[in-house]
Design goal:
Number of strands: 6
Order of helices and strands: HEEHHHEHEEEH
Structural class: alpha+beta
Strand order of the largest sheet: 1-2-6-3
Shape: globular
Strand content: 15-25%
Largest sheet: 4 strands, antiparallel
Length: 148
Amino acid sequence: MTLDEVATAALPHSLAVMGAFHTAAEDDPGDGTLILLGPREPGFWPNFQASPEARDGDRNPMDRWSYRVITHIADAIGGRAFFPFGTPHQPFLRWALRSGRAWSSPVHLLVHDTAGLMVSYRGAILVPERLDLPPLSQSPCDTCEAKP
């Protein structure tokens, strides 16, 4: 399995791989590669709005959609799904920072290398393999000339 294969599995749901890192046995989720998933734009919102969860009138439609979709992807690739909602609480902020694609901005908001301040994580998948990971990105705050 590759990170590109995970991205391909997430694509029909307008989800993108927002980062990944190698875990160790002593980490919260266990040993392997933890892959963070978030909205893929453009297209995420219309995809979600067309879902049964968005139209059924029940509570927490986005969380229920995320649970259904990401659990399905995890099952299909032999992984285990984790979510930033519900209990037990998972350390998504720490995971995001560890992924090498998100940083704490100078005003301490989370900033992502492609999503900027609009970063959002809908879930994560732990796979037992140690997948090849892309090189680490550089914080956009380091290269921002305007420094607002």
